[in-house]
Amino acid sequence: MLYYMIRFFIILIILLPFYLLFRKPWKRNSKKEVKREYALCVFVLFTLGLLVLALEGEYQNPSLMVQSARERLRSGYAVNLVPFYSIRGFFRHFQVSVFMVNIVGNIVMFIPWGFGLPLLWKKRRSVFSAVLFSAMLPLFIESTQLFIRRSVDVDDLILNFAGGMIGAACCFLFRKKVPCIDTLAR
Asked: What is the per-residue pLDDT for 26?
């Protein structure tokens, strides 16, 4: 897990100067806008870092990628569409490092996604929106991984969705305890 965390922070460090040069958060008119801009910076960098890690794979001619995806679906190679099959396996053959990456990691890496959306955008504060967006990003990632020869697992989708929902619930609770945080939303 440490390996993934180090890679993630390296990606963030590489992306940070580009974000800062593009958005120039220090040039905002009010302290409120500056705070929101820095919160947005953290959210955007996190999301980009997550996408870079999750979408590493073999990219090639699009028609070959589609052909490869069809073949993988036909053969079932590195594709699990049976809910909770992998999760049960991780519990049955328990190893701390594998469990931390595959179960805990898949949940934890989506908590900021679920937390940041309702924190930064008022339109994302409904339960429907939390459910929708907590499902959309993991579904996009798992679908894309089929084409880039990465493992595709419905259990990753379930765990990522759970992480997004945990993040949204934490945001809703946090906003009740610290109402001044609502100034970050637009």
From this structure: 84
